[in-house]
Amino acid sequence: MPDYTFTVNGKSVSVALDNEETPLLDVLRNELGLMGTRFGCGLEQCGCCTVLIDGKPEKCCAKPMWSVAGKSVVTVEGLGTPERPHPLQQAFLDEQAGQCGYCLSGILISAKALLEKNPRPTRSEIAAALDDNICRCGSHNRIIRAVQKAAAQMRGASA
Ligand code: FES
Ligand code: FES
After folding, report:
1. In principle, which of 38, 55, 78, 119 could form an S-S bond with 74, CB 3.0–4.6 Å?
2. Average pLDDT over residues 37-43
């Protein structure tokens, strides 16, 4: 049974799998108990399974484990904690930027990747960065407002 070693939220982990095509999402949820990353379509279409892989936002519902070995993965659990939320998480709470919340872990990850590259994104740049993340509840206006708020807060914190 091959072993796959990779880093999740800063910790090195190894998993033994019968099938090297097992998707990263299944490993995160079923082997590692990281339930924040969601299963939606399973077809790389909706974005709710987005995680960072070596710093890039990627959908992981069909990402085979063999392609992840040796890489660094960040999930929504790696952003912050209830006691110490990431500024994005706090802004999403402040703006109540979601209804059912199902899409939000993927959106938070995509937004984190955006703000790392571009600390002062325009509204249309935020919309473009989140274009692969579908929100079925139509919370887009609040989501964009929350990303703008977090960006301002993070710029203030680093000023
Ligand atoms: S569950 Fe992965 S893109 Fe929809
Ligand atoms: S808040 Fe329900 S899918 Fe986005």
Report:
1. 78
2. 97
The DSSP result for 31-78, as a single string, is: IS--TTSPPSSSSSSS-TTEEEETTEEEE-TT-BGGGTTT-EEE-GGG
pLDDT in tens, 125-135: 999 999 999 99
Please choose from 59, 102, 135 the residue to mutate so as to test ligand 1's pocket, defined by most ligand atoms within 8 A of CB: 59
Question: Residue 119 carries which side chain, given as an amino acid letter?
Answer: P
Tokens of 123: 């509204």
Ligand number nearest CA of 58 is 1
- Which residue bears the tokens 């399974």? 49
Ligand 1 lined by 59 (C-beta under 6 Å): yes
Do 87 and 155 contact (CB within 8 A), yes or no? no
Which phi-psi region, left, alpha or beta, contains residue 92 (left: φ > 0; alpha: ψ -120 to 50)? alpha
Strand partners, 6: 13
The secondary element (H helix, E strand) that includes residue 3 is strand 3-8
Nearest protein CA to atom 3 of ligand 1, as residue: 44
89 lines ligand 2 (CB under 6 A): no
